[in-house]
């Protein structure tokens, strides 16, 4: 059975590009989002997130009538669930958005439909989603009970696109397709083939869930190694950037870059889904999370030491006379995304601590977020350099690579000057 109508539940950083990719291949796509404002923006052919090329694709899809957004689900042949899966206070996964998506789509499901969970999820979440669907629709059969011949097919196909390159990576990346049965996987591959040019590799739903978590935990553990090295090297008075450059000349060594901590919505979150399922076993993964989460505080302490040093060298000045400039707020280079950013955390903490002036240089935003706007000033690059006593480099934005500090105290968390 072919897929005439595809519904994407959750029109965020993954859902909207995915909906647009199907629509660009002339599939009828119904995008569903709980936020009326998001729905209205999309129906005007505009977008509410920053992602290169997405605006053009959405505009064309809406204008040509292939993509339409709504707040309440309608019948479709395939449903892709791309809602957030954050963690709670105790680092336990919060599946309430998946549950809400299930409640929304269950009434419109019909025999032959395919439901795919795309959200990054703890192992077992797809089976749980299928259970929730089954209890909402006892009139239909599901793979956990009816196996290959179920009325509804269910699969997990995690996204693995890089923010900033989503439209290209959605098409080119290989796709892990985890079916609850082999016919669920087969149907899912058929659906993704609409636009995926990479390979679609079939496995079961639990392995697909663990695969996505593993990819991001791998990266987190490796960044933690670099971050731990940076702290050790600082103590031993060794330049960690030179050290990593030298060590990486070994043919089988490839150390990542230290930084002020790990941000974004994936790498700092997903490893906790492994830890929460197997707390006694995931020792390295948990420690890596802690190493990366501790790094912002370590940077703050370095700035405090720099203030003390500055006052020692300038005994005629008081703390109130010291101006600090933070360079970069985004969670990584050359993007405008400030959410879950260690640079934001450090800047906030410095603003709370410091009695003198706080400047922020962030070329990718026009104004400071509300929690900083009263206590810090957004300034241009040269103003930040020339008017500050202490320069704190938190993101390696391309604009910062040409700065030459002129005698100020410099905290370089990204190795811009090494
Ligand atoms: N970081 C370092 N040192 C490094 C590399 C990264 O400190 O050597 C920091 C970054 O500054 C940033 C954080 O780690 O704060 C995460 O950045 P990232 O570029 O590693 O990853 P994201 O969050 O932009 O996107 C990741 C991607 N995953 C991997 O590269 C393994 C992407 O492919 C995933 O689809 C995405 O997470 C996701 O949705 O899971």
Query: What small molecules does the structure contain?
Result: ligand SAJ
What is the number of strand segments?
A: 13
Q: For this entry, what is the oligomeric state of its chains?
A: single chain
Which radius of gyration do the C-alpha atoms yield?
24 Å
The percent of residues in helical segments reads 40-55%
Task: Please indicate the percent range of residues in DSSP E strands (runs of 2 or more).
Answer: 5-15%
Overall spatial form: elongated
Task: Name the strands of the widest sheet in spatial order.
Answer: 3-2-1-4-5-6-7-8
Low-confidence stretches: none
Can you give the mean pLDDT?
A: 97
- Class by alpha and beta content: alpha/beta
Distance between the termini: 58 Å
Provide a count of the helices. 15
Topology record:
Elements: E1 5-9, H1 15-24, E2 28-32, H2 36-43, H3 54-63, E3 67-70, E4 78-81, H4 96-105, E5 114-117, H5 125-136, H6 143-146, E6 153-156, H7 166-172, E7 175-179, H8 182-192, E8 200-204, H9 205-236, H10 240-247, H11 270-277, H12 283-313, E9 324-327, H13 342-353, E10 358-361, H14 370-373, E11 377-378, H15 381-386, E12 390-393, E13 409-412
Parallel strand pairs: 1-2, 1-4, 2-3, 4-5, 5-6, 7-8, 9-10, 9-12, 10-11, 12-13
Antiparallel strand pairs: 6-7
Helix pairs in contact: 1-3, 4-5, 9-11, 9-12, 11-12, 12-13
Ligand SAJ is lined by residues 160-163, 215-216, 219, 223, 256-257, 259, 262-264, 266-267, 331-332.
């Amino acid at each position: 059975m072919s897929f005439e109508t595809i519904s994407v539940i959750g029109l965020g950083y993954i859902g909207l590009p995915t909906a647009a990719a199907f629509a660009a291949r002339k599939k009828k796509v119904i995008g569903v989002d709980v936020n009326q404002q998001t729905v209205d923006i999309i129906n005007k052919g505009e977008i509410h997130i920053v992602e290169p090329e997405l605006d053009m694709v959405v505009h064309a899809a809406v204008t040509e009538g292939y993509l339409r957004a709504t707040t309440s689900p309608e019948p479709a042949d395939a449903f892709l669930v791309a809602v957030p899966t954050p963690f709670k206070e105790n680092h336990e996964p919060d599946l309430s958005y998946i549950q809400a998506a299930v409640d929304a789509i269950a009434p419109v499901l019909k025999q032959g439909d395919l439901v795919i969970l795309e959200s990054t999820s703890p192992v077992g979440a797809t089976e749980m989603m299928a259970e929730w669907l089954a209890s909402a629709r006892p009139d239909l059969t599901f793979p956990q009970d009816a196996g290959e011949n179920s009325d509804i097919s269910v699969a997990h196909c995690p996204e693995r696109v890089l923010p900033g390159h989503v439209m290209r990576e959605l098409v080119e990346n290989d796709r892990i397709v985890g079916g609850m049965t082999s016919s669920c996987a087969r149907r899912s591959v058929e659906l993704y083939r609409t636009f995926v040019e990479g390979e679609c590799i079939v496995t079961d739903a639990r392995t697909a869930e663990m695969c996505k978590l593993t990819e991001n935990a791998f990266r987190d553990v490796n960044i933690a190694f670099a971050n731990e090295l940076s702290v050790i090297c600082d103590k031993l008075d060794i330049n960690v950037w030179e050290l990593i450059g030298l060590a990486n000349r070994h043919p089988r060594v490839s150390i990542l870059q230290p930084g002020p901590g790990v941000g974004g919505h994936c790498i700092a979150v997903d490893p906790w889904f492994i830890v929460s399922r197997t707390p006694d076993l995931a020792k390295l993964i948990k420690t890596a999370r802690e190493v990366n989460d501790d790094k912002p505080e370590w940077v703050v302490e370095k700035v405090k030491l720099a203030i003390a040093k500055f006052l020692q060298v300038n005994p005629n000045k008081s703390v109130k006379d010291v101006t600090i400039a933070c360079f970069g707020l985004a969670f990584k280079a050359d993007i405008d995304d400030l959410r879950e950013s260690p640079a934001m955390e450090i800047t906030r903490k410095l603003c709370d601590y410091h009695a003198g002036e706080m400047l922020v240089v962030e070329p990718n935003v026009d104004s400071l977020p509300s929690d900083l706007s009263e206590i810090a000033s957004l300034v241009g690059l040269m103003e930040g350099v020339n008017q500050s006593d202490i320069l704190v480099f938190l993101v390696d934005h391309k604009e910062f690579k040409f700065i030459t500090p002129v005698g100020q105290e410099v905290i370089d968390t990204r190795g811009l000057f090494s």
